[in-house]
Amino acid sequence: MSAITRRTRRTAALLAGAALVVLTATACDSTGGTTVSTEAKQTAASAPAAGDAAAKPAESKAADTKPAEAAKAPAKVGDTIALKSTLEKGNTADVTALKVVDPAQSTNEYLTAADGKHYVAVQFQIKPTGSKAYSEAPWSSAKVIDNQGQAYGPTLADTKAGPSFQTPTNIAAGETGKGFVVFEVPDGTKLDKVQFSLDNGFADQVGQWKIG
Question: Among 30, 152, 192, 211, which is disulfide-ready with 147 (CB 3.0 to 4.6 Å)?
Answer without folding.
Answer: 192
